[in-house]
Amino acid sequence: MTDTLLTYDDALAAYDPVLGLEVHVELNTASKMFCGCSTVFGAEPNTQVCPVCLGLPGAMPVVNGKGVESAIRIGLALNCQIAEWCRFARKNYFYPDMPKNFQTSQYDEPIAYDGWMDVEVDGETFRVEIERAHMEEDTGKSTHVGGATGRIHGADHSLVDYNRAGIPLIEIVTKPIRGAGARAPEVARAYVAQLRDLIVALGVSEARMDQGNLRADVNLSLSTKGSDVLGTRSETKNVNSFRSVERAVRFEVQRHAAILAGGGSIVQETRHWHEDTGITTSGREKSDAEDYRYFPEPDLVPVAPTRDWVEELRATLPENPTARRARLQQEWGFSDLEMRDTVGAGALGLVEETIAAGASPQAARKWWLSELSRRANDAGVDLVDLGVTPAQVAGVQALVDAGTVNDKLARQVFDGLLAGEGTPEEVVEKRGLAVVSDEGALSAAVDNAIAANPDVADKIRDGKVAAAGALIGAVMKEMRGQADAARVRELILEKLS
Known about the structure:
The chain is an alpha+beta fold. The protein folds into 3 domains: 8-313, no CATH class; 319-431, no CATH class; 439-496, Arc Repressor Mutant, subunit A. 39% of the residues lie in helices and 19% in strands. The chain has a 9-stranded mixed beta sheet. The chain has a 3-stranded antiparallel beta sheet with strand order 4-3-14, with no helix packed on it. The model has no long low-confidence stretch (mean pLDDT 89).
């Protein structure tokens, strides 16, 4: 059954959206949070497990010190208070991908709390307040086989891989985000994108959404215009791209508004996001904290980071995001609009890495915000997930700078890169894309163009040099875009002077 939706404008006319975002960050520690098992991605199922992460009787956990360090650094980067003393708790629930029948997490005593991050949307700054950032462990991965949707309903059987069970996670929870209005979807996207950039800069996670290193749960409720009373919320689980975060918020605003406008009530539940159709569907009614029967983890000692250690870690933090943007804008010579568009496209880090790999700022921005942005949009993915690296983009631009290819041919080089045909140089060689600079071939093509367009040739002879563009176009067409356009122009003018 398809949900009835109110138009977005009608929804905003009657209600104010209130956001809450829970982002799970999978840390890049070498071992799991409470045992020594490897965390390498992509291993054969159930080969990176032990009695601790399988929850076998008598197995005793030990806290991963690097995981605690990463949690503190994330908390500090988010302007949080760092607890002088905190402990783990057991979050009890049954699900087959958690073999212990509980998740080791933190409940009322998180390691980091009361922080904030400023995000910018089209020149307007929104402060996102952070409720907490706490340590926990990831669950295993369930694969439901035999059904049409890939979900448990209708499946013939399920397979469970426990390699991921026990991998360190930091869950970052915002306070309710009010006042974003019509820009709520964009604020949600900007926050997750900026948070990812911060996590990458900290070096604590790969933060690849396509591999589940970073996952967002999107909470949404509506308040009646002018009211401070929060509506009932829904929670869309495991949204794994910036684009999808924005779309999920917009969809839920329209769905909630339609239900409320029709006199109905919102069910507090989890929802599943469907990338292909751009809708959410009901999951299960959402449990409250008391339903999980939290209690302190008896097998782990409390964590009490010293103030000296916290200050040492504070000194390792990367540059503040706002200061970084201002510095990069000045270094690159971008206008306010150019920088705003770069940030809005989620391309700031990509452009920075491309420049570091050797491209000029304007060239890096050109490729990411035009050709590659268009391709990402067509594919329905974020730029970071497109499959082209900053080093490859810099390599393509180097070929342009060297005159090996022109901009038109460079677009075909990107085709080859996306098809996995090797480096930019290898793609040029395999596809025969190099610009033709052979004087004999170019001269013959120019002669053909002049013979086929005598009226244009006469205009050039009469001093109307601008008409050369038509002959250049004819030569480029004959040579499949692989002629050196500047040399072609020189030859035309030489022959017709």
